[in-house]
Structures are given as C-alpha cells and as structure tokens.
Structure of Acyl-CoA dehydrogenase:
Amino acid sequence: MSIDFEIPSEAKAIREKVRKWVQEECIPAEKELDTKPLAEVLGPLRAKARARGLWCPWVPKEYGGMGLGPLANALVQMELGESMLGALSMNTQGPDDASMMTILAHGTEYQKEKFLKPLLNGDKRICFSMTEKAAGADATGMQTTAVKDGNENYVLNGEKWFSSSASVADMALVMAKTDPNAPRHKQYSTFIVELPNPGYKIKRNVANMAIEGPHDDVLHGGHSEIEIRDLKVPADNLLGGEGNGFAMGQHRLAYGRLRHGMHNVAKAQRALDMAVAHVTKRSTFGKLLADRQAVQFMLADCASELYIGRLMLLHIAYKAEKGLDIRQENSIAKIFHAHMVHKVIDTAIQLHGALGFSQYTPLAKWYTQVRSQRLVDGPDEVHKWKIGKNVIKAFREHGTTASAAGGDLL
Ligand SMILES: Cc1cc2nc3c(=O)[nH]c(=O)nc-3n(C[C@H](O)[C@H](O)[C@H](O)COP(=O)(O)OP(=O)(O)OC[C@H]3O[C@@H](n4cnc5c(N)ncnc54)[C@H](O)[C@@H]3O)c2cc1C
C-alpha cells in the first residue's frame, strides 16, 4: 500500500496542454511586448487561448470556464506562473480572479449578469479596495464608512491605499464600515463600484521598489492611493449582504494566497532552469560552473525548496478536493512560498553574476516584485501568529501538535 501520487489522467492532460501553451505561446509572446502595444499581443493571445478551451480555469463550465477542481487548477496555475502573460492569457490573473470568485459565490443574479459576465469574458477588469493607510494587516481598523441614503443608495467616505490595478480597472470591490456597533468582524460590507467614478478618485499610483516592465501601466496598473468622497453606490451593488464584507474578504484572500503560491512555484522553477542553463555553459578558472560542488549545493538547496513547495500545494489541493479545512496549511504554505521564491531567484541572480543583476534577464525584476509576497494577503507575522496559536490548540486538544503541522492526514 502506498500514497497514490499518480495525477488523474484528465488533470495530467490539461496540465500538458497548458504547459505547451505557456512554453510555446506565452513565453515567446513576452518578447513581442518590447515592440508592440499590449493589446496587439494580449488580444490575439487570449483569442487563441480561448479557441483552445484555455479560459478561466477554475470557473464552472456553465459560466464559460474550464470547471477545474482544486488539483487540476493548482497544476495549471503552477504552469501559468512561468510567464508574465500566462495567467493573463487565460483570464485568471490576480487581483481579478479572486474578485470574480467572490461575485460568483455571493453575487445576486443581477450582479452576476451585469458585473461578472464582462469580467469572465475578459472585457473588463476589477480591483479590490480593502487596505487603508490606517489599516492593513488588521483590516478591522478600516475607517471608510458607508451610510444608507434612503433605500436607493449607500454613500461612502474615506480612503484606500495599495489597491492593485485600480488604475486599469473598470470596477472595484470596496469595503466599508456599515455598522460601527456590530461585533468587530460584522461591521463591514462590500460594494461593487463602477469606475471611473468621481467619488472614487485615484490620487496616485504609489511608487514602490518593484522594477517596472513594458506595459506594466496597462498590464497591472499600479497600487493606487484612493480618495473616496461622497461615493454614491446603488443599494443593488451591495455584495453578499450587510456585515459580510470581512468574511468574504478573507475567502478571496485565501484563494489569492494559494494562487500566489502556485505562481511562485512556477516562477522559482523558471529561475532554477535559467540558473542551470547558465551554469552548464559558463566556465570560470578553467572549469564549468556546473561542475563546482559549491554550485551544485546551491542548486540542491533550490531543488529541495521547490520540492517542498510543490508537495505543500498538492497536499492542500488534496484537502480542498475533499472539502477539508485548509486554513492552517494555507497560512504555512503562504509564508513558505513567499520566502522560497525569493531565495531561488536570489540564487539564480548570484549564479548569473552581473548579468543576473542587470535587466537583461527577468530575474532582477522578479526579485524586486516577489518581495511583496511576504506582505500581501497578510504579512508573515500575522500568519505565524495564527499558525502558532493553532499549534498550541492542537497540543491542548490532542496531546500532540501533529494535526497543526501537516500531519492530520498522515
Ligand atoms: C504589492 C502589494 C499589493 C497589494 N494589493 C492590495 C490590494 O489589491 N488591495 C488591498 O486592499 N490591499 C492590498 N495590499 C495591502 C496589503 O494587503 C497590506 O500591505 C498588508 O495587509 C499589510 O498591511 P500594512 O501594509 O498596513 O502593514 P501593517 O498592518 O502596518 O503591518 C506592518 C508590519 O507589522 C507587522 N505586524 C502586523 N501585525 C502584526 C502582529 N499581529 N504580530 C506581529 N507583527 C505584526 C508585520 O511585519 C507587518 O508587515 C497590497 C500590498 C502590497 C505590498
């Protein structure tokens, strides 16, 4: 008897199809971005992806997606992350996908028809505005308010900070306090806001440490600071009912964490491949770098980290397929993948020497981008705090911490 690591043939086939798609279409198309406008690259790429049935991987078939379950989706996302055009080509890019997930799960028929449909069709983009200067890791510190104005509208006032892709979005999910007297986690609601809107004013895209690439302004926009002043939102645009904003936000962030992890595995894999391609060609002091044990050790460390990262995702996917609670594993994996990708890219830069530090490979850009992974969707320390509490709880309940340390099924 053994654990069956054989991937079901259907999932394997779709992974092969996506792998081919990324390697043969997306990665070569990246070069075109140097000379062509984004629409001329992404438009035809998306049309081709769709024609091959590669579109919105986890979205149910009745909504036009591929209807993949957690395992097949994880395998697909682990391929897509190798190219900056991968997820975009199949309309499964963050932050849009997590918001699509929220509207799909909690939207009314009207909201699905009016807002979700164009998102799923790839005609529109959406951003998520939760964080404020006053409140990030502890989102319950949000100050933005939503006050009902008769039965027709809510009026929102406040500010938001680091709303990714707001400047390229056609709509935003905005969280605001609807009931200051409710229990802490029931005070907030989420609204679908159509953009542009005079009440939702992008003050600036916040300059940050990530190196910009061609078309980033249109591809991802920036991370915007937003002034919300007398923003009128129709009551029909309240998503999921009053007081449910916080719970819905956590649900979307949970998927975002996993998707980041999957893309991080893919990115780390590409970085390791690049490192090996380099050291198998480059000689110093009369010997190929690949033949140096010190270099082999560096590659071994990266391979080990990638192996752990992959196994974590497969274990989480397995639990998700069975409908089991994945919160503890998701937090552990979120931290691990954020550090893993940083470490592997760092090693790849080191082995490329000055070339790695230059902008002639994507490594430098990735290095500056992935640093944010330790902050977004909850910083390391907040996840560690939760993980640690669960470890103690498990010990108190079972006399061993195993169930909180990946051992619940083992
Ligand atoms: C690239 C990027 C994209 C983002 N995109 C979005 C987006 O689209 N929408 C959105 O709403 N937000 C977004 N954010 C915001 C992100 O969710 C917050 O930055 C994150 O939640 C941390 O909040 P903060 O920055 O206010 O840090 P704070 O809450 O001020 O925390 C600062 C630091 O304090 C430490 N800390 C906090 N709490 C604890 C604790 N309990 N115990 C120990 N240490 C602790 C951590 O080290 C933490 O990094 C984005 C951020 C970045 C960097």
Summary: The chain has three domains: 9-93, 126-242, 247-404. Residues 95, 128-131, 136-138, 162-164, 223, 372, 375-376, 378-379, 381-382, 385 surround flavin-adenine dinucleotide (CB under 6 Å).
